[in-house]
Amino acid sequence: MSTENNKKTPKWKADFPIHKTEAAHVSRREFAKFLGLLSGALAIGNGAIVIKALASPEKELEGEHFVCNANEAPVGEMLQFELEGPKVVPYILICLSEKEWRAYEQKCTHLSCAVRYRHDLGKIECPCHKGYFDPHNGNVLAGPPPRPLPQLEVVNRDGKLYVRAMRKQNPDI
Length: 173
Hints:
Layout (H helix, E strand, L loop, with lengths): L1 H6 L3 H5 L4 H5 L3 H28 L9 E5 L8 E6 L5 E9 L2 E6 L10 E3 L4 E4 L4 E3 L6 E3 L8 E7 L2 E6 L8
Antiparallel strand pairs: 1-10, 2-3, 3-4, 4-9, 5-6, 6-7, 7-8, 9-10
């Protein structure tokens, strides 16, 4: 009796008569179709991102925005703040001296990592890929960032610090 049970095919094998080698086989045509569909989906996704970026360009910051009192930003320190608009954007305020402040967007121009001011180095650092920026003007000092940090103008009015968009300098003058 036991030999008859061993020779008998299980019911599930009769219901699914596909061999393991046939189940794992992918034809060239199926593989090419998969790659074509995946490439098409990625191209459509990239196209949608480009169209969205072109259709809704970022607006420049309008007006002046209060950040803090001048005595709340110690010399050599960095203060983080956010400005709300269509989207929330993080910024840093750096107190270089008792009467000198700089404000920059807190996203590195390389891969948007958060930057921080390192008083011990006298530089703004992107810790992700060791990019460094000049705290006085935001220019790239070292590393992979392709362009300077976006900067805001800092205005001190009666001991209160405000930020506004940098005024563009006319190169024709």
